[in-house]
What does this fold into?
Amino acid sequence: GTEIPEDHPRYASLLTRHRIEAGVEKGITSKQGLIAQGRGEAFDYLLGERTLPSADAAARAAAATLLAADHPVFSVNGNVAALVPEETVELARVVDADLEVNLFNRTEERMEAIADHLREHGAAEVKGLTGDGEIPGLKHARGTVDADGIGAADVVVVPLEDGDRAEALAAANKTEVVIDLNPGSRSPRTAAVPIIDNVLRAVPNVTAHARDLADAPPAELRAVVDDFDPDAALEAAERAIREGSFAADGT
Ligand code: ATP
Ligand code: MG
It folds into this structure.
């Protein structure tokens, strides 16, 4: 593949583009996913391509939420599979969550390709292909889930999720952890825990916090969750964008 020198000032963004491109070539990422990537990249630039302290606090609250959950499920789409396959499998393992492929534009081919891709990166079981469940309030295939996966989940991690689906999941009483770079998007605004950060940084960061909290008693997990304020996290990200920190190197 294309080698990107690690000291390039835009290393992370070039790596992201390259992975998404490869994802499209492999049939796991949609053309719509390319557009979503462009939008995300713009927000990441405005945020300074770094994890804000507020996003780190959100990642810790997400880890505590997942560890305290009865049945957490990590929803995987074409961008997530292309960008962070190993990291996603690892987080699911550490917090004992199910992995479920869930696509905005559902096709059998892409569902299978993503499930295969996750298995190649170490996933034992991948849900989503059964599609025998339904999130109420969404048109046809948009609401299709596995009954014993997202259908039965109390907590769902939904990175880069569409606003309608995020709202429908919340209405179905799911506690949502949303990873999204746009603090103004409906999906993070719907989430109990909005992580305004790049999935590339956010997923391994949640895993690190989960490892740190692995032996914490339930009361400590509850305190981490209760201390987190989703509105304050969204506001902090908006402020960072408005105050324009941009990338540290000025590029
Ligand atoms: P809605 O109003 O329904 O939320 P939207 O305009 O946000 O719609 P999309 O463009 O499909 O719809 O959403 C893609 C979202 O994913 C954007 O908010 C974008 O910031 C985010 N995104 C894209 N790439 C990444 C990434 N690598 N990490 C985190 N978020 C990302
Ligand atoms: Mg959105």
User: Anything to note?
Assistant: The domain at 53-242 is CATH 3.40.50.12640 (Rossmann fold). The radius of gyration is 17 Å. The chain has a mean pLDDT of 94. The pocket of adenosine-5'-triphosphate (ligand 1) is lined by residues 36-37, 39-40, 43, 83, 160, 162-163, 179-182, 185-187, 198-199 (CB under 6 Å).
